Amino acid sequence: MTDSGGATPRVEMRGIVKRFGQFEALSGVDLALRAGEVHALLGENGAGKTTLMKVLGGLHEPDEGEIVVAGEPVKLRSARRAAQYGIGMVHQHFCLVKRFTVAANLQIGAARASRVSDSVSNAVELGERYGMKLDPAARIADLSVGEQQAVEILRALGRGAEILILDEPTAVLTPQESERLFTMLREFADAGKAVVLISHKLREVTGHADRVTIMRRGAVVARRLAGECAERELAQLMIGTGIEDLPLQTGSPFKAGSSEPQLACAGLSVTHADGRLALDDLSLRIGSGEIVGVAGVAGNGQRELAEALTGLRPAAAGTIHAGDRDLSGGGPLDFIGAGVGHVPEDRNRTAVAPGAPIWRNAVLKRYRTRPVARGWRVDSSAAQKFAEQLCDVAQLSTRDVHRRIRNLSGGNAQRLVLRREIDCSSRALIAAYPARGLDVGAAHQVKKAMLEAREAGIGILLISEDLDEILELSDRIVVLYEGRIVSEFTRENVDRDQLGLSMGGAAVR
Ligand SMILES: Nc1ncnc2c1ncn2[C@@H]1O[C@H](COP(=O)(O)OP(=O)(O)OP(=O)(O)O)[C@@H](O)[C@H]1O
């Protein structure tokens, strides 16, 4: 499908083909970016969005096709070369050195001749122009995720980006940070520049983009004006067929107090390295066949709660029990042994070994149990067979279990982790932001899988910022604010406004 018509494009990609070995990830893609537009790129997991943008960002060389900038064909052989043509990419996983200051990070990759002070004052000035205030002396590690993203954006702007590519930028942001980002992007586009926004959030696309290009299996299947398109139509264009109708909640209603807790903590306190309390005297029980939603703005203790309930972070005080098994003071292996699964927030760093093949990652938590374990050894053919089955259940776009995880698309890697964890949870599952980064079809599958686990009696702690997701799935909702549970709602008495207020720290009835 060619991308023709309209004003002269600022950048044009024509007939782009990209192969990885035998696999064709892009099969002749055309994309034109016009000055002044926010252009959304939509598509199911593995459709080729990131690969296409890596071609534009100079990180992949295309096998066929050409790129035209301001009417001239160009070769973008490196990110530095792309930057010289005004193309800047903000990655899903930030490329910042956490121990360094904002200033030092801004200097990395700045034009070699420029002095540190020049590149920093330039970035600070740019930040002010676009409403992003930053302290150049602050260490990256001390910044919120939203602020870290602002540093990434400023780094690209500081290198003279005229085309800004953002890969799922709001996946890690609070709703307020997302709004600020979109205001900034609009101002950037209004100044005659262009933005490419890769996103799975349909509301974001219809609300903030001008045009949208929809990809499936390495090709463009549709182009639309974003404001004139209903979310449902976009979803159908993306996955090719109609999605099953929501709502999903199919199981029997949970009766509070009717079942043994699968996992419970009492008086749980967790401290940060500097002694500040991350969790303060927190008590929570997750019943059998119950989904407990933890609502809250990120950074209020969610990560610490998930890590304490999976043995990854020691508690300063309190107890944790799985059924009648005392896990207080236990490590990760104790929790795995007790049947507690974990979908962590930062999956790429903590849930997989990116350089290892799919099959090794699939059995990460099974290498001690049959049929994968044979005595002290792993039976690799049994492990590979198990991994193939997991790929099928997770509906991965590949069944080649020898592929390295780092070569899977972000969404496909995530499907694998989710299925692996659900599969090894015989008692409880701690799921942090489980649908983040998934396309609508995959998100639906994940929600269904969690409801099936609930039906099987597993207790689930669902940590999410997405109120729709929490309201859709939870039997009970607790709100976490500054390390404490500040309010609790049941499915029957939940009130969206009260919930939102409570997330912001306001006292509710
Ligand atoms: N370096 C690589 N080597 C081999 N295959 C790759 C590599 N990078 C991407 N792929 C494959 O190319 C396809 C497209 O991946 P890409 O990351 O572009 O998808 P995406 O549309 O961005 O998906 P998601 O929404 O899941 O992030 C996938 O099947 C992926 O496994």
Would you report the number of β strands?
Answer: 22
Radius of gyration: 24 Å
User: What overall geometry do the principal axes of the alpha carbons give?
Assistant: globular
Q: What would CATH call the homologous superfamily of the largest domain?
A: P-loop containing nucleotide triphosphate hydrolases
Number of helices: 17
Q: Mean pLDDT, rounded to whole units?
A: 85
The name of the CATH topology of the largest domain is Rossmann fold
- Biggest β-sheet: strands ordered side by side in the sheet: 6-7-8-3-9-10
When the domains are counted, the total is 3
Features:
509 residues; alpha/beta; Rossmann fold; six-stranded mixed sheet; 17 helices; 26% strand; globular; binds adenosine-5'-triphosphate; ATP hydrolysis activity
Q: What does the model show?
A:
- There is one protein chain.
- The chain is globular.
- The chain has 509 residues and is an alpha/beta fold.
- Strands 6-7-8-3-9-10 form a 6-stranded mixed sheet, sandwiched between helices.
- It has 17 helices and 22 strands.
- It has 3 domains: 11-239, Rossmann fold, CATH 3.40.50; 246-339 and 425-509, 3-Layer(aba) Sandwich (Rossmann fold); 352-423, no CATH class.
- Helix 4 (116-129) crosses helix 5 and helix 14 (410-424) runs parallel beside helix 15 (440-455).
- The site of adenosine-5'-triphosphate has 18 residues, from strand 2, helix 1 and helix 14.
